[in-house]
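3.2 Worked example (two chains)
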Amino acid sequence: MTVKQINAEPRPKIPYEHPDARRYLALFKENLIRTVVKKARYPRHDADIQAQFNQHNGDLRQQCEQLVRYVAEAFNHYAVWDYSHAYYPGRPSQQNARMDAMEGVSRVLPTLAAWLNANGDSPLLGLNGTSLDVAEILRKSFLAGTQPQHKGYWGEIQDYDQRICESADLALALWLSRAWVWDRFTAEQQQQVQRWFQQVNHCKTVDNNWHLFPLTVQIVFKALTGEDQVEHARYQRIKAFYVGDGWFRDGAKGNYDYYNAWGFFYSLYWLDRIDPTFDPEFISPSLAAFVANYRYLFTPQGLPFFGRSLCYRLAAAAPLLAAIDQEDPLLAPGEAKRAFSTSLRYFIGQGALRNGAPTPGLFADDFRLVDNYSGPASSFWSLRALNIALFSGERSGLWQAEELPLAVEQGDFDLMIPAIDARFIGVFATKEVIVTFRSEYTTEQTPLTRRLLTQSTTDRLLERVSGRARRPKNNLLRKGITCYTSKMSHFF
């Protein structure tokens, strides 16, 4: 196998990864504020939503509607300061408590906006029957978050700042809701909102999938205002990570993992939907190439997960939904629907939603599987497949389609993916899919270094006091594990 060589840039020293005394003081301060303003946990509908998704013959569209109602009601409970922040319960990230609370908004608003895009001015009812004005929630959030004098101001964006990441989700929400939010702002309000987002045009990012975040903001504001500030050099760098067969490496020395699904192709799909002239000659064919082999990973009960950010697991079907919206002739809407429905039902039916949010784990909370950059609301990236479904389901035929069998439900298979030097094996009799990588990320390993580590009592205590994550790194790809099964036995 010939490995594509990608020129690497030195990884910068990122402040939140190397906190000094001043940063620890800020962490402690924000942790105290969180203690004062956070709301009680909201488990009111956990059992109901789990029961909904245990109905394996239930209507998928109705189940997705119930999921939105579940999320929206809890968000309304946790949100503070005119919906600019939401303090969800859970363990902190490496950032600070306020940044974690910003994620509680930025990662939920795209779902609300996608629902609004599909349903218009109709009120959204929480599962408790409370009527929620989604457009008004979005308007309040954007005006509060971008107003420097408001208590909920999202802050100044710095180089390598987590706000760069969150700005992309916020910009997407603004585009999806534009007819009800942006278009109803005054000229002055539009300028205020745009000023906050334009900060990303002057910020450095880590050299990986993060280039997609400023690009998303820039493409959105080009669509909203006509001003073209798109950094095409960032986009060319993203394309440099493409290695073939639909797969990207996440940075010059990064992983091949599920970020291809819920990172790269999710963002590329939206770039294409927002501006269909942007680069259809690359985006559509590369998505089709990815889906052609990626579709084999789905089973009725689980996926062979490899890499990091496993808490985003509900978003695994996002590229399949994107592909049928782009009318991929090789993927039937019924197969995409089955992949999406079985992944939702399997995980949510086993308890993947708690207290109004996706849990930080595969099923219930499992902090061995939570990266230090993830906070209480980070797992809302799990709703990325749902966002595409809400936006495109009527048009793509998703809701109307009859479910069709997955590849492993049709027979055995054994195929190679040369670009990533991986072998996909499907076993019809057991409905199991196994992925084996034929090269390793590291040769420095022992049986002990390959295992999942548990956080020490000392680190747990320091994490609680400081408000900063201190969890072990448990990316099994990086530990030297080369074989993964959809039964997910490595994680239990």
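3.2.1 Second chain
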Amino acid sequence: MKNGEVYGSYLVTILVVAILSVGLMHMLQGGEESRDSIVGNEKTDSGRTDGSSGENGNPDGTAGGNAGTQTSVNPTVRVVLMSTGYQEIVHPEVRIAASSGLHITYGGQTEEWQAGEVLTVRPDDARFAAGNIRVTAAGQGDEIQVYQIERGYGNPCYAGTLELRTTAEGIVMINELPLEDYLCKVVPSEMPASYEMEALKAQAVCARSYAYRQAASYGYPEYEAHMNDSTDYQVYNNSQPQDTAAAAVRETAGQVLLYQGQIAVTYYYSTSCGRTTDMEAWGDAVNESNAYLQSVAVCGDEGDYEKELPWYHWTAQVPVTTLSNLVGLNTGVDVGTLTSVEVTRRGAGDVALQIVASGDKGSVTVDTENKIRRALGGSGYTIVKNDGTAVGSTELLPSAFFTIEKSGEMFVIEGGGYGHGIGMSQNGANEMAKQGKGYQEILGLFYPGTELSAY
């Protein structure tokens, strides 16, 4: 070849290599994005209070998801919508409508549904032959109302997309929407929207951090869904959306708690007895990764923040026969008539970690706070709260911060707090906010060693 031809050949070669390199870099960057994104990468036990706060946290102490340092801002989450009363994840039929009408897509086909008209879908719907059915509201900003579900405020409405999947048991509904929109309906469902703004902001950060952790993997891989809308994770859309809760989400947008560079699992519950506990309450060893979930004093210059609240302290006098029956029923061990119930091991914050219930037919040992609360819980006796009001007992003892003594034909239980006691006391946060504490200080008290970070 001539020199010019050689030069031209070299130039073409260089250009081809450059183009291929750019394409390769783009592919690699795209792959990195998909690995860092929550979308496509895929559980909290709650003791509800007397119309106030909720609690989250797995009684077995598991986080329910992998730690993540995701980089997506406001990623999409997929939430399984359970039936009325959060009994099942399947529905015998689905009945939905939107004031602006519905867009229905399946297998590449699209249908338009009239404004306000109810769409009924059953498991044998012919549309399922083409695949999953996805439904959105026709109008921008409009939401889809679901009529076969009852929540705390009636038939709930959902933003984003409803995806319907048919199964042998019925229809599974998945709500797909941006995480920040999801939080706007978690915060008022987990904390009363009438609470102080700084407490609501603390709740928003906790809910966001917890949601990111759950969204790091699929809780329901068979449905490509991250979580459900019950206390298994966080309660979603059980209470009507409120401007205050939405403002708390908006004003903390993207903020999470980090511990050692990872998103912290931000457990929370209703009310403390003036102190919290650590992960040993759930049978987990306290280690370097969960050290921020430690026992702290929930108090200020004037004493315990919650000392005037109803669930701060409570007492119950339980007839021996009643507690004997409940222990036998709840543990599956017939110990006969109880002669003693002894707390044989305590943990941080003086929480009960183990009890031994002994009767004339034998004894049973119960470990961890949730199982202890369940063993001594159930209907049949009255609990008198700090303010003198009395309520009926429920399936769980209010908390595992208690003492128990036999007095004649009664067992006297004296306790404090409501919930599992790990992480943030929601009512404690509200009382702190009333005393002028900001959400950063609130979070710093309940999760020592964590860092508030824009994510």
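3.3 Remarks
Helices lie at 3-36, 179-190, 197-214, 243-251, 320-331, 369-375, 426-434, 439-446.
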